[in-house]
């Protein structure tokens, strides 16, 4: 059988009514047999995520502080939600009692204690939701990393699945084959010594992706509170188009610059098996969402999205006959690497080379260290710095073979009087990156959007 | 006193009539007191440069072959030219006898023997021309590296001046101050042991530049057989505009891609002292030539020239989440460096990096070595290669602050149906580089020329 793996984010599991909506979504498609749940998140009137409470509990526990109030707040969330759904308080408290066990465990390994507490939100939620489904006469089984053997590396807070863990996940298909809905907690796995180890924050997306990969799901549905991916930031462009379908690469290029609807690293497992990801809105079932696929059919749109990010700076190094010096570029990049800095782009002219990097990496004095090292090691004719740059990326699969996209983008900037400091079109066939002054960022996104999405009205 | 340093190239000293033209040029401006001469070059009916004869003589001498015929050819050139100008054959032969000495010297150091023979063309020419000037009642003095002490490094065939050598050159001003015209041979200096060491080929340009720098000349005149620098290759664009003035940097960017009117390295000494270089045509005194300066006034032209070069290839490396891997770019460039390859540009996208290099560097098997090393060391998702790329550079000082130049260039490509594989605008403020398929190179240069130079007629 082929299944949809459905992951529900924090707001989609925040309240009893949200949880009943999941039940409704399950009933609409019988292929939805594998659920991955986050911990209860925010909702109207709820200002703290369960996971944030749990982080506080872990921190206080390690400092031997009183956590009763915080533990009470966590328990109250689950009790409120699941009693409303018909579970008895007794059953719920039985599940929640595991938290009391975890806060009293040995503090010898703070990171293990922390992860085991922080993962409780997902674990309890999946367990209780499976009980709720059974109560509704939907046969369901709570399956968790402990029971299935989702083995991960012992990097607490940033664990990665092991080969054995991936192999074990395959068994989930057999459980679904028996007709039961599998309810699985996101965000964590089991380290070699049996302790809980969490993924990086937002890691429930990764859990869903791993299961989708392991069982060869026909689609990975990622349910949140947004309709899908928009073609531009709605805070900048009014009512931007929703993207119906885009490729993994396009999503990655967009998410690089602030489109953070989806946990990036979670894309990797599914890309390898070419499993489509569909972003859906739990509260708007009539919206088909955004489909993320390995290939898409060319459509009338050359450009599918425009993203922007600020906070970049640039070091421009000029040296006469630079290109005669073998290794000049490599040595330049090595200086940045030795100072612990990663760079984004390195456009070059004939006798000059620029290094563009995220300026948030810079500590006081870093700029001087960079300049001193460049002067000492490369003897340039001059070094120039620019701060407060924004990078604007125009994304579209096969973009570089669409003649005229660069011209249209550059013309839009020219018409708006925006100076382009950097252009980086790297033969990736998927994006063109412009570096401009941050003061022009919003204007740039708007004129590009108008050029590529509102061109019908502009013509004639 | 302030002087013009005047260097005359091979065709400008090829025949007796060419040499009288130099005398005429001297008489037109009394500030022309320092001449640097090349060896006699090509002219109508003369198919071998004196320097090429001398290279043959040096090679044959080292192999103990008969050189009498070649020596005869060299002597005949000087005898023909200078007897026509009134020097006695006896005087000429006396000067030329030095060649007989040099071909019989010790062969223990082949490179010293070679350089001392090859430099004879310039040495004899300067010596004889000074005698001709004196014959015309123009007081002149033959000054040479040996007499003034133009000390150079002992890198035969690619020598560089030493600090002492530069200091000694300053004395040339004093000789000119005495009212005499200094006639100096180009192309060589004197190594530490007193032997002749030549500059790299075309190095007479460097001699002139060094003297201009040493004496603080008001202008460095470089006389050849072309009017100046054209804004595009006349073999591609019909009757391209001559550039009236451009900056050192602009010249460098143009010369990078095949505008080789001027020996590149020769620019460096004069740039440091901001001495203007004027390219002039010996045979067209009414043409003011092209002036190369440190700064130029902004004029109506945003773009001053368009150059192109073919024979580039590209390696495109894709790896998901590449920008999270610190040092990825540096390690990529290091692979090319370790294989002894230099690269031109390295444009990048979000998850991809391209390395553009001169494909003439590649030996059979190099491409496979590159790909294997990249796969072994960087584990990319994919590597793609492209061969037969041309780079087109659009040059103009302050270009990047002229809004709309990129748009105009990109539009010209789009209108002509030319696909742009790479764009590299590196914040150098001076050029935009496009990578395209070589099949489109000529068309690209023509449409860019039309866009930036023929726009008056286009706009009607």
UniProtKB/TrEMBL annotation, chains A, B:
Listed GO MF terms: aspartate kinase activity; ATP binding
Gene Ontology terms describing biological process: homoserine biosynthetic process; lysine biosynthetic process via diaminopimelate; threonine biosynthetic process
Domain called ACT: residue spans: 394-460
Keyword Repressor on entry: no
Keyword annotations from UniProtKB, A to Z: Amino-acid biosynthesis, ATP-binding, Kinase, Nucleotide-binding, Transferase
Pathway named in the protein's UniProt entry: Amino-acid biosynthesis; L-methionine biosynthesis via de novo pathway; L-homoserine from L-aspartate: step 1/3; Amino-acid biosynthesis; L-lysine biosynthesis via DAP pathway; (S)-tetrahydrodipicolinate from L-aspartate: step 1/4; Amino-acid biosynthesis; L-threonine biosynthesis; L-threonine from L-aspartate: step 1/5
Signal peptide: none
UniProt EC number: 2.7.2.4
Catalytic activity: L-aspartate + ATP = 4-phospho-L-aspartate + ADP
Annotated ATP binding sites: 224-225
Enzyme class: transferase
Pfam families reported in the protein's UniProt record: AA_kinase (PF00696), ACT_9 (PF22468)
InterPro entries named in the record: AceGlu_kinase-like_sf, ACT-like_dom_sf, ACT_Aspartokinase, ACT_dom, Asp/Glu/Uridylate_kinase, Asp_kin_monofn, Asp_kinase, AsparK_Bifunc_asparK/hSer_DH
Any GO CC annotation of this UniProt entry: cytosol
Family membership: Belongs to the aspartokinase family.
NCBIfam families referenced in this protein's UniProt entry, alphabetically: asp_kinases (TIGR00657), PRK09034.1 (NF006540)
Protein name, per record: Aspartokinase
């Amino acid at each position: 059988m082929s299944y949809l793996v459905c992951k529900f984010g924090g707001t989609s599991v925040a309240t009893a009514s949200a949880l009943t909506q999941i039940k409704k979504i399950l009933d609409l498609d019988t292929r939805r047999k594998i659920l991955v749940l986050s911990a209860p998140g925010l909702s109207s009137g709820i200002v703290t995520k369960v996971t944030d409470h749990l982080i506080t509990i872990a921190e206080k526990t390690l400092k031997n502080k009183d956590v009763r109030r915080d533990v009470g707040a966590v328990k109250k969330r689950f009790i409120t939600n699941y009693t409303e759904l018909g579970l008895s308080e007794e059953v719920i408290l039985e599940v929640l009692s595991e938290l009391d066990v975890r806060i009293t465990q040995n503090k010898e390994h703070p990171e293990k204690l922390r992860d085991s507490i922080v993962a409780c939100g997902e674990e309890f939620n999946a367990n209780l939701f499976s009980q709720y489904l059974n109560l509704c006469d939907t046969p369901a089984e709570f399956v968790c990393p402990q029971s299935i053997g989702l083995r991960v590396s012992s990097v607490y807070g940033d664990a990665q699945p092991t080969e054995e863990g991936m192999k074990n996940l395959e068994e989930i298909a057999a459980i679904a084959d028996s007709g039961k809905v599998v309810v699985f907690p996101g965000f964590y796995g089991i380290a070699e010594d049996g302790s809980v180890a969490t993924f990086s924050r937002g890691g429930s997306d990764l859990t869903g992706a791993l299961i989708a990969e392991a069982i060869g799901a026909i689609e990975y549905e990622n349910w949140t509170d947004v309709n899908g991916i928009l073609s531009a930031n709605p805070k900048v462009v009014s009512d931007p188009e929703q993207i119906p379908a885009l490729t993994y690469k396009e999503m990655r290029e967009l998410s690089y610059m602030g489109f953070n609807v989806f946990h990036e690293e979670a894309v990797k497992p599914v890309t390898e098996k070419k499993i489509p990801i569909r972003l859906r809105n739990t509260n708007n079932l009539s919206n088909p969402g955004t489909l993320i696929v390995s290939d898409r059919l060319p459509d009338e749109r050359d450009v599918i999205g425009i993203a922007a990010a600020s906070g970049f700076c640039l070091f421009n190094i000029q040296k006469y006959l630079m290109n005669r010096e073998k290794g000049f570029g490599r040595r330049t990049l090595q200086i940045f690497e030795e100072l612990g800095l990663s760079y984004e782009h390195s456009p070059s002219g004939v006798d000059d080379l620029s290094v563009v990097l995220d300026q948030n990496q810079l500590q006081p004095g870093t700029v001087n260290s960079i300049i001193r090292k460049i002067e000492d090691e490369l003897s340039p004719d001059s070094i120039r710095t620019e701060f407060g740059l924004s990078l604007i990326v125009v994304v579209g699969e096969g973009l570089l073979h669409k003649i005229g996209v660069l011209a249209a983008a550059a013309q839009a900037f020219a018409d708006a009087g925006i100076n382009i400091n950097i252009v980086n079109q790297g033969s990736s066939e998927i994006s063109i990156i412009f570096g401009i002054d941050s003061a022009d960022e919003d204007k740039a996104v708007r004129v590009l959007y108008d050029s590529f999405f509102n061109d019908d009205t502009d013509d004639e």
